[in-house]
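Posted in: Protein Modeling Q&A

I'm a second-year student putting together a small comparison for a lab meeting, and my supervisor asked me to include a predicted structure for RidA family protein. I've never done this before, so apologies if this is the wrong subforum. The sequence is pasted below exactly as I got it from our records. If anyone can share the structure token output, I'd also love a short note on what stands out.
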Amino acid sequence: MAITLMNPEGLPEVPVYRQVAIATGSKLVFIAGQVARDAEGNPVGAGDIAAQVEQCYLNIGTALAEAGGSFDDVAKLTAYIVDWTPDKMPLLMEGIARASAKLGVAPVPPLTGIGVSALAEPDLLVEVEATAVLD
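Accepted answer (user: helix_wrangler)
Welcome! Here is the predicted structure, written out as tokens:
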């Protein structure tokens, strides 16, 4: 495995992700921001942040598999959330948990959440991009 995830002493431990990813692999995979669309391009989870996060993670899982990897190879995730407020955190965590259960993994690489005013289409509430490192 090319990624080691850790929470260094002296930094707060966050239950849903690790603060640091150490990459030792040789193949970088950059996955474009994934949104709540199924394989046919149909919208998923209208108005539901958790459902949209879940679909974003599932799409990332599909992209990683095609590249020969899995969530174990993800070094960094960035989530863009429309009209972010802290009270939306449980919905973000619910979506991650549901995707984790379906994927059979605990995707806990470093995660940065960024509040945005809008995404490319009005029904999109979340977009998630990933960087992975494979051996």
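A couple of things worth pointing out for your meeting: The CA atoms of residues 54 and 101 lie 10 Å apart. DSSP finds two helices and six strands in the chain.
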